[in-house]
């Protein structure tokens, strides 16, 4: 077993790992990338891991899904002997004193099959979690709590190494292994997209109102609509396509068989007001931002909020998804005082955004027209191959991920003002071409959810 006090694991969606490392490097320039463990998981070094993780947890990055300290590296051979070696290494960790009587803790194991030629392991992640948790609970009097742990023992195993550390759920950015939040499928479920809304509510700490009106843009087949109805809301579902037949007899549902832009034009003119507006249409992020900005005048000022998914293009020659995102967020901040963005586990090539406190029309600043020129970003000294993209950061106004919601927290009780995000820099993808970025086609076709 080797020990270290300067390493941590960074987890993000594989296509966004470069952006995640860039936003973390902006917070702590001592960060260096020691190498990729697996797609979307990088081993990094910083001068002070505890301080670094604490800073990141308070900043709430957009692309970084999970952090875990590496306080010990255990040699493993995928035999049953590994369980004893991991248990011995755990009690020798510098943070083991956090596991004490009454502390709610969880053991979270991630097993990577990095070399299939070595055959199957003699154990599963579930076996490691159960064996280690039972031994620790008996020895220390701590309480295993896999849903709301205060302290987490994180283990990531390749075929040769086990990376082990102890930290709080708050500092990990998520109470789930690698930030992978799974939900059980139910017979009432209409679509996979329901998981995106459930995760957004949990990660951002927002609470659905128990009554009032919600506007669901691009509703078909009706996954989000079902969840909103179940919460007690009256729902106007906007989509030219049919909804799931199971929704036809639901009380409180109105289906507008048309496009979102047409509906919003009438809604704005008629002065309609909603407690919640959601959007998951398949359209360019900037077009979605303009549409949601238009809807701001229909959102109740005091406690209304908006949840939208921004679709991003894949990086290619002359196409930079992070420029699209930066411009979309800039548009949105012209209409809302509070804007937060995060790449959720259930997001694909997309970002989920929550906004609140719409700015009155007469006071709204006009967003600057994005420059068509190419600005070369400074070179990152820590890793030449990594993307130079830096995200736009906004301060979150709700409880921290991994922590139980306390009374009075959540967007509906918030009085926060608009956060000042860091300015995103252009990524290395854009630097491959000096030609102007091609215009994105405008479409309002909904992505069925």
How would you portray this structure in words?
Residues 355-449 are annotated as: Disordered. This is Ribosomal RNA methyltransferase FtsJ domain-containing protein. InterPro entries: RNA_MeTrfase_FtsJ_dom, SAM-dependent_MTases_sf. Residues 191-284 form the Ribosomal RNA methyltransferase FtsJ domain. The chain has 449 residues and is an alpha/beta fold. It is 24% helix and 22% strand. Helix 4 links the parallel strand 5 (104-111) and strand 6 (143-144). The longest helix has 16 residues, at 125-140. The N and C termini lie far apart (48 Å). The model is unreliable at 369-447 (pLDDT under 50).
Write the layout of secondary structure elements.
Blueprint: E1 2-11, H1 17-27, E2 32-38, E3 41-45, H2 49-59, E4 66-75, H3 81-91, E5 104-111, H4 125-140, E6 143-144, E7 151-157, E8 161-168, H5 169-172, H6 194-204, E9 213-217, H7 223-230, E10 234-238, E11 253-256, H8 260-270, E12 276-279, H9 285-295, E13 305-311, H10 321-333, E14 336-342, E15 350-358
Parallel strand pairs: 5-6, 5-7, 9-10, 9-12, 10-11, 12-13
Antiparallel strand pairs: 1-3, 1-4, 2-3, 4-8, 7-8, 13-15, 14-15
Helix pairs in contact: 9-10
